[in-house]
Every structure is written in C-alpha cells, then in structure tokens.
Specification:
Blueprint (H helix, E strand, L loop, with lengths): L1 E6 L4 E8 L3 H13 L8 E9 L6 H14 L7 E5 L3 H14 L2 E6 L2 H10 L8 E6 L1
Parallel strand pairs: 2-3, 3-4, 4-5
Antiparallel strand pairs: 1-2, 5-6
C-alpha cells in the first residue's frame, strides 16, 4: 500500500509505503501524486519506507523506476527529498536511486521524525543521518 498527502502550507509531499510494493505499484502511486491538483514541483518530499519490505527489490527495478521518474515526475532541483529506509541493508538500494535520479538533495534516515524535521526545517536533529548527496 502506498499513500500520499500533500501539505501546501508546509510545501511538502508525504508518501508512506507499506507492505511489499512491486515496481508497478510504485509507478502507479507516483502517477497519482503527480496528478494530484495540489502537486507542485518545488515541494519537498518525504518517502517513508520504514514499514515496507524491500527485500525483493533489484537494481533493475531501481533503474527502471529512475527512467520513469526522470521523464514523468517533475521535481525542482532545489527540492529536499528525505527517504526513510526500513534498515541499513535496504538503504543501499535507496542510495542507488538517489544517485541515479540526479535532481534534488537527498538524505536517508531510519526514523520518520528525523526525516520530517529535515524536509520541513532543512536540518536533521540526529547526527546519525546519512547524506546521500544530490544536486541542488
């Protein structure tokens, strides 16, 4: 299950991923986000995978989603994207996504509240956050 909420007052898009999402689920959910009347390319994003099982995700899945995202998900180069990984092992596949997308500034977190703080305030309160890079 993938749900999203857009908060125009905060300029943020919140996406929560639960269960075992397949590539097509991620593409369909992304299309819904972009078609939402509140969608804005400048909004920061928090993508929470903390309750997701990503053990089946492959590098090919990531590559195919990146190809889709580059052509179908408009995003400002100044957007902050926080990704909440379910565990350090799965953070690697999310890191690959962040490196390949080449837009926005990405950080990976293991706690949703830390990720939310960073996209809302531009600062992480936990020194354990992992900077993934990105282009601002």
């Amino acid at each position: 299950m993938i749900q999203h909420r857009i908060d125009p007052e905060q300029g943020c898009i919140f996406i929560e991923v639960r269960g075992t999402p397949q590539l097509q689920d991620c593409i369909a959910a992304s299309q819904l986000v972009v078609r939402d009347p509140l969608y804005n390319i400048d909004y920061h994003r928090m993508i929470d995978f903390s309750q997701a099982n990503l053990s089946h995700a492959t590098g090919d899945d990531v590559s195919r989603f990146v190809d889709f995202a580059k052509t179908s998900i408009p995003m400002a180069r100044t957007a902050r994207i926080s990704i909440v990984a379910p565990d350090p092992e799965r953070a690697g596949i999310l890191r690959t996504f962040a490196k390949l997308i080449n837009r926005g500034s990405f950080r990976i977190f293991y706690e949703p509240m830390e990720a939310r703080d960073w996209i809302e305030n531009g600062q992480a309160t936990d020194p354990f956050d992992k900077v993934l890079g990105g282009v601002a």
